[in-house]
Amino acid sequence: MQLAMVLADTAVMNMDIEKWNAAVNPKVNGTWNLHEALPADMDFFVIASSLSGIFGNYGQANYAAANAFLDAFAQFRQSKGLAASTVDLGVVDEIGFRNQLSQMRVSEQKNNQLLHGILLKTGVSKGQYIWKRDVRTALSHVRQQTPEATTTNRGVKNGSGMKGFLSAVQDNQEVLHDASSAHVTATEIARQVSIYTMRGGDEEVDLGMSLQDLGVDSLVSIEVRNWWKQTFGADVTALQLMNGGSFMDLGKKAVDQLKQKYLMKK
Ligand SMILES: NC(=O)c1ccc[n+]([C@@H]2O[C@H](COP(=O)([O-])OP(=O)(O)OC[C@H]3O[C@@H](n4cnc5c(N)ncnc54)[C@H](OP(=O)(O)O)[C@@H]3O)[C@@H](O)[C@H]2O)c1
User: Fold this and answer.
1) Of 46, 98, 108, which Cα lies nearest the Cα of 71?
2) Cα(163) to centroid(ligand 1), Å
3) What keyword terms does UniProt attach to this protein (predicted)?
4) Which residue, of 42, 133, 134, 184, has the greatest Cβ tally within 10 A?
5) What is the model's pLDDT at position 163?
């Protein structure tokens, strides 16, 4: 269990690098060190995080950033198949740091805040990070969809592989009956989803995973649906994508749709 914490509160304009590091290092570097030092087959890897990572707290930009990192880090470990969970604590009575500050009055709002946090975290556990809704992050979404951005990631090879595959299908539809076809389409769907969920499309995705496993929310599923239509020239609903099973299942679905498309052309 990772419970390390140092508070170094100050207004953000007065936040120097020492204060920043004082709060950030035990959580960020400390957690990373545990991740590196501990064996991969841990039964659990529990990290104490804080609701401040969701809401922020005046004077605690450093602490909030560190806790936001922890929540994302747990997802990172999970994406690698490693044990990880974070607990976003609200104010804790009777034990720990807050309890030592006897003059600190626990806000009446803490229960509301906790409930709000839990609701938000329900989304976060599905990869619905709040910052993805933030207009200030829109640029990175756009960048990742531009051709310049895609040429920088390894997946472009697969992307052009996909182009090659589609043009081979156009020449000879028998290709669709080859067992490897579903694998090619599944890989490309997974790569695309990986880009839309801001993983960059570089990492290899387990084709047994589903869209939910990769943190796809309703907005991203619409993006994937549009891409699907453009790529395979066939319709699919966001719901069908979300309930469509693994990437391999979706790959098979794409192949079936392509078969149907060419059958209708005949
Ligand atoms: N208490 C709350 O109301 C509350 C609310 C939300 C979240 N949390 C989270 O819950 C966790 C525990 O909080 P707490 O109230 O129990 O805090 P705490 O009593 O202040 O304990 C923090 C511990 O972290 C250790 N630590 C600090 N820097 C370290 C480092 N570089 N390496 C190893 N250990 C280090 C401290 O050890 P030393 O004493 O030896 O320095 C201390 O034992 C924290 O992660 C905190 O963010 C607490």
Assistant:
1) 46
2) 52
3) Phosphopantetheine, Phosphoprotein
4) 184
5) 82
Of 74, 96, 125, which residue sits at a domain end? 125
> Which residue's alpha carbon is nearest to atom 20 within ligand 1?
97
Which of 7, 97, 105, 118 gets mutated to test ligand 1 (max ligand atoms within 8 A of its CB)? Answer: 97
Atom of ligand 1 nearest to the CA of 96: 15
Two structure tokens written together for 100? 């030592």
- Count of domains forming the chain: 2
Range of the domain at 26: 12-125
User: Is residue 114 domain-shared with residue 158, that is, in the same domain?
Assistant: no
Mean pLDDT, rounded, of the chain: 81
Q: Which of 125, 149, 179 is the last residue of a domain?
A: 125
CATH code for position 69: 3.40.50.720
Mean pLDDT of 196-203: 73
Which protein residue has the closest C-alpha to ligand 1 atom 18? 97
Extended beta strands in the chain, E state: 46-50, 85-89
CA distance 210 to 206: 9
30 lines ligand 1 (CB under 6 A): yes
Ligand 1, atom 33, residue with closest C-alpha: 4
Q: How far is the CA of 74 from the centre of ligand 1 (A)?
A: 18
Q: Which of 190, 266, 254, 262 is nearest to 228 (CA)?
A: 254
> Looking at ligand 1, which atom is closest to the CA of residue 93?
3
Residues 146 and 79 in one domain: no
Pair 121, 231 in one domain: no
What are the pLDDT digits (tens) for 66-109? 999 999 999 999 989 999 999 988 877 667 676 665 544 444 45
What CATH number has the domain bearing residue 167?
A: 1.10.1200.10
